[in-house]
Amino acid sequence: MTDASGPIVTADGIPLKRKLARALFRSRARAFGLAFPLIAFIIAAFIIPLISLLWQGVHDPRYATYMPRSAAAVANWDTVSPITEKMAAAMVADLVEARKSRMIGRVATRVNRELPGSRSLFTSSARVAKKMKPPYLEALVKKSKKWGQLATWRAVKISAKVYTPAYLANAVDLKYNADGSFSLQDTKHRINLKLLGRTLQISLIVTLACLLLGYPVAYMLSTLPTRTSNLLLILVLLPFWTSLLVRTTAWIAMLQSQGVINDLFVLFGVTTDAERFSMIYNKTGVLIAMTHILLPFMILPLYSVMKTIPPSYVRAAKSMGAHPSTAFWRVYFPQSVPGIGAGALLVFILAIGYYITPALVGGQDGQMISNIIDFHMRKSLNWNLAAALGLVLLVVVMFFFWIYDRVVGIDNMKLG
Amino acid sequence: MKLKTLLTGSAVAALIAGAASAGTLTVVSWGGAYTKSQVEAYQKPWMAKTGNKIVSDDYNGGLAEVKSQVEAGNVTWDIVDVEMSDAVRGCDEGLLEPIDPSILPPAPDGTPATKDFVPGAITDCGVANIVWSTIYAYDTTKFKGDNAPKTMADFFNVKKFPGKRGLRKTPKANLEMALAADGVPADKIYDVLGTPEGVDRAFKVLDRIKNDAVWWEAGAQPPQLLADGEVAMTTAYNGRIFNAVAAEHKPFKIVWDAQIFDFDVWVIPKGAPHKDLAMDFLAFSTDTKRLADQASWISYGPARKSSSALVGSFHNDPNLKMGPQMPTAPANFKTAIQNSFTFWADHQDELNARFNAWLAS
Amino acid sequence: MNAVSKEDGFVVFDHVQKSYDGEVLVVKDLNLYIGKGEFLTMLGPSGSGKTTCLMMLAGFETATHGDILLGGKPINNIPPHKRGIGMVFQNYALFPHMTVGENLSFPLEVRKMDKSEREEKVRRALDMVEMGDFINRRPAQLSGGQQQRIALARSLVFEPDLVLMDEPLGALDKQLREHMQFEIKHLHERLGVTVVYVTHDQSEALTMSDRVAVFDDGVIQQLASPEDLYERPENAFVAQFIGENNRLVGTVKEVRDDTAVVVLPSGAETTAKAVNCGKAGDATTLSIRPERVTLGKSAGENATDAEVLELIYLGDHIRCRMRVHGDEEFIVKVPNSAGIHELQVGSKTKVGWATEDCRALDRA
Question: Rounded to whole angstroms, how far apart are CA atoms A165 and A171?
Fold first, then answer.
């Protein structure tokens, strides 16, 4: 609106735009008010914890908080010149302080992640630090010769960083060095990238298997009369009525070496009693169980899309002389692509973060990235590394989402 | 009118519930026969004596739950039975309440508790109750007479003793056993394991059985794996195997060579809801009599010297003397290795990573 | 067009029956011979079996019994894509993921035609329906009428001898529908293709067809040219279904030559042309078209008393609802000419009809 022409006003002289905005605001406020409890719940119970957890993947203030003097002292150290008395003095002062505040354990845990063996070095040195006299470097080295080694101080320098790429680097099998460079983790400790690769591989295979198995089922459901298809849909959803744990355990009973399937194989002479197939506690078991569990997530979007494709399209194609397979591939299939996209994305994203099934039936070679995250959450208590792994996983999922958007188009997806 | 009665009623109910929960202690332990021994020897007498209630909860070890409860400020566990290394580590990280050893009752002859407990059993935040051991056991129907395994090396020899092997899914104990099997003497185990070559050496021994390994996590699993015929031999906590043999008459036999023994320790999470009750329970359950009583339920050695004299027979079989079943019995103890919690506190991150990578490859 | 014999029928339904559930016959013993180049409409209410017949012809349904022949050859066992029949569907069935050009090109591609020939044919087919500028549009970007034309062009682009149309104009508004009726009619005349057209709209059927097969209850009630259907319905269903119709129910008193004397419930007698009324004593339905009724003084033959109940002014004529022989729904169409001012609601007058125009049919 320009000043020259003046805004359009309503009968009572209020500019129309403002009046409209006010009227709309009221209805928007009401809609927001209704949605507010949910939004607040999601923010409080999901978004904030998620961000704060993921934050731990790059943020570890432990050392700098409890050992501020030594953290400052090593900040400008170039990692190769000799250890100075100033650094040693700051370390001793910090050790005394941390011992007093009972935080030495946390500090020791942090440094131990960079240099195994540092935990006892720190806790035992802290116990005697109070009695140390200058020159402090000599006193420390007298306590343990490790204090005279550059590696110890490099580990301190890495630990002293509040915002650290160390965990992210670790999550992708790299090592963050004190001088700011990255190097490859030695082969005996490389696991995360391998698990990530395996996770993607399993997810892709499961997605493909779900598509191959689910597509004909969804097609059949969509062609049946509504009454029958509703009944069959309930059967498709039936697995959801039992717990995931029960279903996974059922697969153990089916697939284990003394299980039903192997018994049948032996009975029909497919294999001998001595050479039963191992189909569980390995990747095969994970693939079978996950495909079964995720299949409904493929069938449902496919079905809802297929239901909207009138049979007349394929008929039209046939009437124009197209062989049934041509009619399917050129006419029916392209129209079911939004359902394939939705189903595949759903299954893939669910699969990539799958945890319980591989934990139960994965054995050694069926473990996925979520299982190592779980390990660091519950066993090693390295929540920072778990968070970093979670971040990596998030990035991978986003990447696939982006690829999907580029290839298929996100607005070309139909969830139901 | 009606509403008022209802409100009063629920207020009263809430008060009663509150009062009741004030006397309900949540005790967390490892489940199965082991928890049963604690229920019989510690919990029932304590409840009878104090009138308080106990809710018994199971877990698979580790500090994860304690850490999340403490860090979330929502502690629901009052007292937890942990391994020594976790007690020390949890104390270092400020997850546990410090325990004043003066609350522990003296021995019947007046010896103060600090002298009565075996050395190392009392730490800043924990008091040991038993000595337990990781051993390996085999199915006697599969290996008989001279053909039975006798040494730790036999466990890692699948050519001579074919069959699946059960192992705990952690590097702890497995690496020590592997080195012992490779000929490293008990007192040198951790020195060797402290070097990169020693770690490689241990994993090389583990490689021998990798393809035959079945990994367990809960203490109740190994006897089950043996009973189901899923494995021919398995590492296990000695008490579990003893219990399967004594109470369920399973055909299992323990091989004591190169057993790894450790303390189990009571700890109290920082901010436990019934801290005072927990302290009382801790002191009560680690007195001389309770510890001796527990030994009649499961073959774990009491952490007090004064209890040994009181150890009698298995609770439902007076002919089964418990003394020789203990890890600390002289016949079993010759090649025993004491678990080094300092070694594991320093190296578990690194060795876990290595172990996971090894498992996944 | 005259009746087509079985021997020279281009499309032949020979004793065709169809049942979906094994209990009810949807199509009962259908015998229908369609000549080459003919425009034949299957007309009937929903559920009368007309669409089923079309689907059997297209090959999407199989006949339970009997033969369907196309060009003298039985096609029961030929799959739809080998029948070479063009088809226009009710919802047009234009492939939404293809452009107009790709839609038209599709039947040519599956016939492995080379590109230049395809383009030429597509262009010609689009020009034929005056849609040449829309070749790169998607179906969703077209109006209903435009989609209809594309669907038409697509069914014709591969030059089939036979085109089936399943209520193709059902989704269009009245004006567009009438316009398209003429276009389809003209296309048919120009191309000489055989058309089998299914509709439930009788005016559409009358406008376009060479012959109309009126379906009811799985049976063809009458197969005739539009004129015959209207002027000479053979039974009460057809008389009622096609055009506006006055029905009077009575009993046959006697039949002489082709004239029947019918006694009405009021006791009055009237004469009618005996078409399908059986013998003396049978119940019959009399059918008189509203425009064939004479009014007032000119009512000669079969004159009877009538009372005006309602008048509706329709411009060129006035619809007049009357009580005649006790029937209160008797409609007379009065041309808007001099002398109609006598008609007032409640006024009494005389109506009559020629015996020739009153057809005595079966009891409905």
Answer: 10
Neighbours of B248 (CB within 10 A): 11
Which residues of chain C are within 8 Å of residue A317 when distances are taken between CB atoms? 95, 106
Please indicate, yes or no, whether residues A127 and A240 belong to a single structural domain of this protein: no
With a cut of 90, say whether residue B309 has pLDDT above it: no
Total number of domains constituting chain A: 2
Q: What is the dihedral of CA A11, A17, A20, A26, to 10 degrees?
A: -120
For chain C, say whether A333 makes contact (Cβ under 8 Å).
no
With beta carbons under 8 A apart, name residues in chain A contacting C154.
320
Distance CA(B260)–CA(B269), nearest Å, equals: 27
Residue C170's pLDDT is what? 84
Q: Which residues of A touch B89 (CB under 8 A)?
A: 105, 109
Residue B124, chain A, CB below 8 Å: the answer is no
The class level of CATH for B22-131+264-325 reads alpha beta
Tens-digit pLDDT profile for residues C24-60 = 999 999 999 999 999 999 999 988 999 999 999 999 9
How high is the mean pLDDT of chain A? Answer: 89
Q: Taking the domain B132-263+332-360, which CATH number applies?
A: 3.40.190.10
Tell me if A20 is assigned to some domain. no
**What DSSP line would sit under A65-119, residue for residue?**
HH-HHHHHHHHT--SSSPPPHHHHHHHHHHHHHHHHTT-HHHHHHHHHHHSTTHH
pLDDT digits (tens, 9 = 90+) for C321-341: 999 888 888 998 888 876 666
Of B92, B194, B200, which has the smallest distance from its Cβ to A123's Cβ? B92
Q: What percent of chain B has pLDDT over 90?
A: 64
- Nearest-CA residue of chain B relative to A189? B354
Please name the CATH architecture into which domain C11-236 falls.
3-Layer(aba) Sandwich (3.40)
Contact across the interface for A319 and C111, Cβ inside 8 Å: no
Question: Which residues on chain A place their C-beta less than 8 Å from a C-beta of chain B?
Answer: 102-106, 108-109, 112-113, 116-120, 123, 188-191, 194-195, 198, 258, 281, 363-365, 367, 372, 375, 377-382
* Closest CB to A312 among C80, C91, C97: C91
Q: Which chains touch C (3 or more CB pairs under 8 A)?
A: A
ipTM beyond cut 0.85: no
Segments forming the whole domain that contains residue A373: 192-412
Where chain C has pLDDT below 50, the residues are 1
Same domain, A265 and A383: yes
For residue A389, what is the domain's CATH number? 1.10.3720.10
Neighbouring C-beta atoms of residue A178, cutoff 10 Å = 22
With a CB cutoff of 8 Å and minimum separation 6, the contacts of B162 are B232
Chain A and chain C share a number of CB contacts under 8 A equal to 66
Quote the mean pLDDT of chain B.
89
Query: Other CB atoms closer than 10 Å to residue A365's CB: what's the count?
Result: 14
Nearest CA distance, B35 vs chain A (angstrom): 21
Q: Which CATH number fits domain C244-361: 2.40.160.20, 3.40.50.300, 2.40.50.140, 3.90.650.10?
A: 2.40.50.140
Q: Is C305 exposed, middle or buried (0-12, 13-18, 19+ CB in 10 A)?
A: middle
Residue appearing with tokens 């207020």: B11
Cross-chain residue pair A320–C80, CB shorter than 8 Å:
no
